Amino acid sequence: MPLLNPLIVSMLVLPLLQIVSLPQNAIEHCDGQWTIRDCQMRAKQLLLVVRQCAIQHPYHPGRHDNISTGSLPVLPAAVSHTCGAYVHLARYLSVYLCADSDDNSVIGEWLQQVHGSLLADLRPSSLLTLLVTSIFLIRDDTPTVDKCLQLLLTVCQSDKTQVSLLMLLQRFS
């Protein structure tokens, strides 16, 4: 089994929670073989896999990634709010999220930098929300969790459409 990056895998939590929370009377757009209940059951199974991946497969940077460390990464520009850009950013941040790493300063500085830049941005990317939520789920140190929550609050204040998405996080954590 290839070594998985738990930060990237954890970015699947919110989309899977959206599937789990679909109302039973939701209109089904499928070929008839899958029902809403089937999709919800599969999403619940995948949530368990994501949780186990984050717990059982700690990320060891440098073994499979070619990410150079140095200055703090910045958010992808508005024109490059692509999944690939955020995956690259997540891979970079993963270097500092190792289970055996006690250095939270880089992650904390990055979260503060993003928080400051969001105050000027009118609509944060949902990919940013997935990344910050992933950090929130993986880290258990109080300063990092607090900074994640402050940033997610700013996201909700800036983009009301993401409030319902983040409310799903309460079901998982």
Q: Notable features of this structure?
A:
173 residues; mainly alpha; 57% helix; globular
Proportion of helical residues: 55-70%
* Structural classification: mainly alpha
Task: Write down the Rg.
Answer: 17 Å
For the terminal residues, how far apart are their CA atoms?
27 Å
Shape: globular
- Which oligomeric state applies? single chain
Percent range for β-strand residues: under 5%
Low-confidence stretches: 59-69
Number of helices: 9
pLDDT averaged residue by residue: 76
Question: What is the H/E string?
Answer: HHHHHHHHH
Question: Could you say how many structural domains there are in total?
Answer: 1
Report the biggest beta sheet as strand number plus sense, adding barrel if it closes.
none
Q: How many extended strands?
A: 0
Please explain how this structure is put together.
With 173 residues, the chain is mainly α. The chain has one domain. Helix content is 57%, strand content 0%. The chain is built from nine helices and no strands. The longest helix is centred in the first third of the chain and has 21 residues.
Please sum up the structure shown.
The protein has 173 residues and is an all-alpha fold.
Task: List the topology elements.
Blueprint: H1 6-10, H2 13-20, H3 36-56, H4 83-94, H5 105-118, H6 126-138, H7 142-158, H8 163-167, H9 169-172
Helix pairs in contact: 2-3, 5-7, 6-7
